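Journal club prep, notes for RB
We'll compare a predicted complex against what the paper describes. Inputs for the guanosine-5'-monophosphate case:
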Amino acid sequence: MSDFVLLVLSSPSGAGKTTLTRRLQQSFPDLRFSVSHTTRTPRATEVDGRDYHFIDKAEFVRLVECGAFIEWAEVHGNFYGTSVDEIDRAKADPNCGGIIFDIDYQGARQIRAKVPEITGVFILPPSMPELLRRLRGRASESEEIVQRRFQVAMREIEHYALFDFVIVNDDVERAFDALRAVVVAERSKRVRKAHLAEALLRSGEVPKVQAPNG
Ligand code: ADP
Ligand code: 5GP
């Protein structure tokens, strides 16, 4: 296992994944955001190819049928999927140290079944009223869509046990510190660093220890 991390972030909509992902990429520029394909309509601030690959349903179905997705799911009435290509390109890039996936629990479960070594992080809102406030505060969707997302939040939270870490996004800086710690800890795992210890052992150099009084 190398330093390459596969960080899967999930949460109910509005809990703060996008906000935390942006912060994480500033702190770890070698982490690449996995750009999913979706049939959802773009929000005003979203850019095709940066936030999502926006495609229609016929194209989505075609990609599913040709096995282009490592995982896909229907979420809030739209289809979302992660392409195998996205992962292969990141792994082939020598400057890329890992991938951040912003996907729902159904996708997280599918990826985990294929790639058990992912690091799964579930983001919780501090309370349900605050989640609703954030969904409304994003001001990019109608009240109907906000309500639809809020209604399924509980079902999403029920799946927290699929993840390795749970972080409460009460304060962005505090949540970000916790997320950063997860990445640092993941990269420090013995299985990832064993080769360094083994190389030192193989080098056979016995360090000269200086006596305290010269
Ligand atoms: P998600 O990607 O999980 O749907 P976003 O990152 O889009 O969530 O966050 C939803 C809204 O909540 C955004 O307007 C964002 O600025 C805001 N937000 C995120 N984290 C916090 C926080 N800790 N405190 C207050 N507002 C937050
Ligand atoms: P949004 O429409 O707010 O961008 O995303 C809605 C939900 O879809 C979020 O829970 C987000 O994590 C999830 N999502 C985004 N991309 C993917 C994907 O490729 N696969 C799956 N399974 N879920 C995704």
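Talking point for the session: The two ends are 43 Å apart (CA to CA).
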